[in-house]
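Hi W., the zinc ion complex you wanted:
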Amino acid sequence: MSARTEDGVIIGLEIHVQLNKLHSKLFCSCGLDYHNAPPNTHTCPVCLGLPGSLPVLNRSAVKSAIKVALAMNCKILPQTQFYRKNYYYPDLPKGFQVTQYDYPISVNGYLAIEGDEGRGVRRIRINRVHMEEDPGRLVHEGTIDRSKFTLVDYNRAGVPLLEIVTEPDLRSPKEARRFLNKLRNILEYLDVFDGDLDGAIRVDANISLAGGERAEVKNISSYKGAERALSFEIVRQRNVLRRGEVVVQETRHFDELRGVTVSMRTKETEHDYRYFPEPDLVPMRVMDWVPAIKETLPELPEAQRTRFLKDYGITGTHATSLTLDPKLAQFFEDVSAAIDPKLSASWIVDVLKGELNYRDLGVSAFKTADMIEILGLFSDGVVTEKGAITVIRTILDEGGTPGGIVSEKELAKVKEDVVTSAVDEVLSECTDAIDDYRRGEAKALNYLVGQVMKKTRGRADPQDARTGLIERLDSNES
Ligand SMILES: [Zn+2]
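Structure:
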């Protein structure tokens, strides 16, 4: 049976990922911390391609590449080599890009993703993960098709890149996005990649429908962009076929703003690049490194999720959410050392994460010790749920310590007698609601609880208020 779906959508991805957590470029010692630096300040004769300069391979980059390849279940090749890919472009000062061709560092891996509904888990084959250098960057003054002039910045030239090539195994734009999300998740766990940095990931997507040639959409710069570009292409190609015309093989550009793809050129063949082995770099034999690198591989998100379910008994939703971010997962484990894991997971995922996202902050903005203290106060009944949330918000907005905030803002839960007198007051004031309650209107009780909370400025435990109200209402019944 064919692997095609009814629509016959076939998608393959080529993903360029910067190993942007390394200290230096692939063939020279220029730093990668250029993101806020003026143009052309992170350059040297090697990455500017000046005559006579020679590349020196960054050993850490090779190790990171092996890590990624192993995490993607790839086979590391015993001998691997760099090639020159020859073409002229202003962002490429040498007139060639050093990349891999025959003998890439790794081949034949896979990544399992959740398929579209009803399709179960799908294994997406990886053709290869290989290493190459990033070109520089063109800065167009104006738009790409109507710029007054173009400047070039070589700060990015020579940044270590991985090219990850999938087989054409993806069947929908949603699957492609899920694949990219999973890839990013793994790269972040490996600590080789910061996906938030500009240019950290670029995707080329090949897409075809049954009965048509494939189009390649170049340089999509976000996960969401990939899904949108592919969705657009499906509609476009379907319309071409419907009109009885032919989908031609071509390269297209995704216009992020308009959400459309535009034709750039008909596809050139690989031979145009005249690949040949880079004479300034000897072939590498890295097999001896592999066992030691395997040892240093961290627990990957999938394995960690399974362990969280087993060891902590938290819900699948919480486990998934926590393992989307290695830092958040670590935070959870640290808090859980002191606090009941289910309570921790629920507060971290359902409350803290939302508060952090709202402020565009990462979990490193919150201290583990503070979370432990807050959840301790909550478990001991010192503060209500509402009070605990106020403490979290105050720490994020104004700083301070949980204990300090509780006393400053008078958040400590009120004593039982205060709740009792608030209940008395409410019952003497809200006779209409009492009548409603007696007529069996459930909403009336909620209203009365709300009134008690108001009187105690949120410091009563809503459950205490509810119990107190019911006791009084039911005992007064005649
Ligand atoms: Zn350099």
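The two ends are 75 Å apart (CA to CA).

W.
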